[in-house]
Design goal:
Helix 8 crosses helix 11 and helix 9 packs across helix 10. The N terminus is likely disordered. The chain is elongated and about 80 Å long. The longest helix is centred in the middle third of the chain and has 31 residues. Helices cover 50% and strands 13% of the residues. The chain has eleven helices and nine strands. It folds into two domains: 80 residues, no CATH class; 270 residues, no CATH class. Strands 1-2-3-5-4 form a five-stranded mixed β-sheet, covered by helices on one side. The chain has a two-stranded antiparallel ribbon with strand order 6-7. Strands 8-9 form a two-stranded antiparallel sheet.
């Protein structure tokens, strides 16, 4: 093991989101000596070499004991010696199987404020999304706007259905915020992305603090989709149970229920013989509004980039697994985009706004707990059931 101060700055970051190395924020030699001799040890992590890495130092060596327990011990020692000046990371070695330890200045992890205040951008995106949600939930209003003959009554008629979709999206975001607060994490305000096809593509929510581990990432990422899905499905079930008589509801072809395996299965279960192939059925309009929210919820669970599905994939299968899922998902969405403008628009948005990489977790080595695996898999499976078509005939 070399006790000299590392002079080489390695490139190709396993610590995404950390600023590029500057001489003024390198960790001093005396601090490195303290970390090597008084913080690391045979009971936690035995370092064999070190290299400057961006705004900190990467240590290679041997992990002793459970990574979670070792990380807790080392973080406590680091806090006692230096307060909140440094952050410890356990990460996977992109070039090997042994975990790496990284010490980074906390100042390099802080996000700089943008030229435009967050509240202004969030409000602007939210207002446009509100308009597109209203238009998506009222085809008559869309037509009236194109002909210049819309009335205030048409706007009022769109309010109940728009509020249903909006409530599902807000429940989704509330799920994230409650989970973050429960774990002591911080997340930013959601940027709702408008969509002409669906009303909105949901919200982009940034994690603004360092998450502790993959279990915490899984909980925060999965809580939003699961909360939104529960509300949407509850509204759909109630809407199906209160199906109006013909002439009082919205007349639709039974074929629309072939668009979703989950919704189609629920509809057939609750409607029974009333749902027949090639027939027309009267339904409560809020079913389609809740279904729209459920679909928005589901596409955010596609395992790609920094959206919920990508975060869940990283939590369950690590950074290498996340990278593979992202590549496959982009390719599949790109192919689907040939036939679907929704898929094409979504993959373009993800590539330009949410392609990643996901910011590092304090401990990326320890796998998530069983309950967090169940939550993450449930969110991904729910998305699949919503997006896959119902393949059986309504006999």
């Amino acid at each position: 093991f070399s006790s000299q101060e590392p002079s080489k700055v390695i490139s190709g970051s396993p610590l995404p989101g950390v600023k590029a190395p500057l001489e003024s924020i390198k960790i001093p030699k005396e601090v490195l000596e303290t970390i090597r001799n008084q913080i690391f040890g045979f009971d936690t992590f035995f370092a064999t070499s070190q290299e400057y890495y961006e705004a900190g130092v990467i240590f290679r060596g041997n992990m002793r004991g459970e990574p979670a327990a070792s990380h807790a011990k080392l973080s406590s020692r680091l806090q006692e010696k230096f307060g909140d000046e440094y952050q410890l990371f356990f990460i996977s070695d992109p070039e090997g199987d042994k975990p790496l330890a990284a010490i980074v200045r906390n100042t390099s992890l802080q996000t700089e404020p943008g030229a435009i205040p967050d509240w202004f951008t969030v409000s602007a995106f939210g207002l446009v999304s509100l308009v597109t949600i209203f238009l998506r939930n009222s085809p008559a209003l869309q037509l009236s706007l194109l002909t210049g003959s819309f009335t205030f009554e048409q706007v009022l008629d769109a309010v109940p259905r728009a509020l249903v979709t909006l409530s599902v999206l807000l429940a989704h975001e509330a799920g994230h915020y409650v989970a973050a607060k429960r774990n002591g994490a911080s997340i930013g305000l959601p940027y709702f992305i408008p969509s002409w096809q669906l009303g909105s593509f949901g919200g982009i929510t940034r994690v603004t603090s360092v998450l502790k581990n993959r279990s915490e990432l899984a909980e925060i990422a999965a809580s939003g989709p699961l909360t939104g899905a529960v509300l949407a499905l509850a509204i759909i079930v109630v809407g199906l149970l209160l199906t109006p008589e013909k002439g009082d509801g919205l007349l639709v072809s039974s074929s629309i229920f072939h668009d979703s395996l989950l919704v189609g299965g629920i509809a057939k279960l609750l409607l029974g013989d009333a749902l027949k192939e090639g027939s027309t059925i009267s339904i409560n309009p809020v079913i389609l509004s809740a279904w729209s929210g459920l679909l928005i919820n589901a596409i955010n669970c596609i395992p790609i980039g920094e959206i919920d599905g990508g975060r869940i994939a990283q939590a369950l299968w690590g950074r290498k697994g996340w990278s593979r899922f992202t590549g496959v998902s982009i390719a599949l969405l790109g192919l689907t985009g040939i036939f679907s403008d929704v898929a094409l628009y979504w993959v373009v948005l993800v590539v330009f706004l949410q392609r990643g990489p996901i910011a590092p977790l304090a401990d990326e080595v320890t796998p998530p707990s069983s309950k967090h695996i169940v939550a993450g898999v449930s969110a991904l499976l729910l998305s699949l059931l919503v997006c896959c078509p119902f393949p059986f005939l309504f006999a």
